[in-house]
Amino acid sequence: MERAPLSFQIPEEVLSRALHAPPGAQIAYWSHDIYRGPNGEKVLVHYCKSKATVEQVAQLFLAEPVVGFDIEWAPYAKPNMGPKANTSLIQLACENRIALLHIALHKGEGVENLVAPSLKQILESPDIVKTGVSIGSDCTRLEESLKIKVKGRLELSHLHKLVKYRDTEPHLVNKQLVSLARQVEEHLALPLLKGGVRTSDWSRELTHEQVRYAATDAYAGYRLFDVLERKRLSMTPVPPKPHFVELGLPIDLGKTVPPRETKKSDRSVGGVDSSDMTSSDKTPNDAATTCSSNRPDIEVPIPDEFNQNVDKVQPTKASPDAGGSMPTLSPIKAPEVEQAEAWIAEYEASLSPPRTLRASRTQLRAYALWQFHGLSVREAAAVLRDPPLKESTVASYIMEAIRVEQLDFKKERLLEVYAMVPWQALGMYRTLMSRLK
């Protein structure tokens, strides 16, 4: 199965500048505002301060099958401080628009004055998937403060681990959280900027920096789901999508895998991957920053907040969850493939237990054809399947085999392969490519 590609993407020249930008430059970081639609249009950001406007904008998301989801709250908020402090801002995102719903600025204090009907419908519908990191705790806070029981909660950490470890280290597929920043850098090609703005006061009118941060986090949830779903559907066999968090069910690997001894280095701390502890997304450990009052324009077609263009905004079409089919690899009798298979068997036999193959056999087969037989990516694609595989797919196979198995390569040839890797996956190979410098 293949997912239909999204129409909003990062322009190649923008991505190239970002990948070659010096560390610390704003252009080097991932954000919603670097995406463009087919006609160059930007992702719209709706900043809504009243219940009436929230209702108007929320209706634009009712037909979406998936929305990125996040919330923000006042620093050091406590239950007795009321819903405006505990759920100050709710963020929703789809492919071409993001809604920042500023509950803290609504008039009135009761829940009936703070929750627009269409927003409640979106959050309580199991048919609209809400995606995010640490989404379980966010929804618990939402339920306690606004009496909304969110359904259709998908934890991106579960999907990330399923895709990353199912075929290589299945014992690492668990429900421990992986930070949003880490997932963005690994799957969306660029790092996520995480500064002090995340611990600023979200109960007051937002600065431009807060708008950008909040919009980017929600959009990251949406884009990560798309990339991870694309990777899940390319696996063989395809594992089931992780269950909604509210169901409390284990992650289904979709096949029987032998148990492996857990090494000390594999252990985690406090329910969060130990490798991610330095980039936690929800822990307020940074000082708030002072933001410039010189705000660039924000595209917000809302009448009572900014302008009168809301009538021109049309609901977006729902992005298809999946469509089409992927051809299966058929047995190949070419001598090169038989020799590649022999090398894989030899390589696997050389591994000391409990070490097993981390790369898939398909990835190793592509690597062997490229490395030992000197085939180009295009030639390997033709040998591996008729009709040929996509060159970008074979390039990804080779890069992944080298990355997870620490295999040998020639610098000049690897650069040629790296240039063919889909941009969404480039971030996975930054460490590998740094070895070439």
TrEMBL record:
Region (Disordered): 255-306
KW Cell inner membrane (keyword) present: no
Compositionally biased intervals (Basic and acidic residues): 258-267
Superkingdom of this protein's organism: Eukaryota
Polar residues: compositionally biased ranges: 277-295
Gene3D superfamilies given in the database record: Ribonuclease H-like superfamily/Ribonuclease H (3.30.420.10)
Positions of the 3'-5' exonuclease domain: 45-233
SUPFAM superfamilies: Ribonuclease H-like
Statement: the UniProt record of this protein carries the keyword Membrane: no
Alphabetized UniProt keyword annotations: Hydrolase, Nuclease
Gene Ontology biological-process annotations: nucleobase-containing compound metabolic process
Gene Ontology MF terms: 3'-5' exonuclease activity; nucleic acid binding
PANTHER family: 3-5 EXONUCLEASE, EXONUCLEASE 3'-5' DOMAIN-CONTAINING PROTEIN 2
The protein's name: Ribonuclease H-like protein
Taxonomic classification: Eukaryota, Fungi, Dikarya, Ascomycota, Pezizomycotina
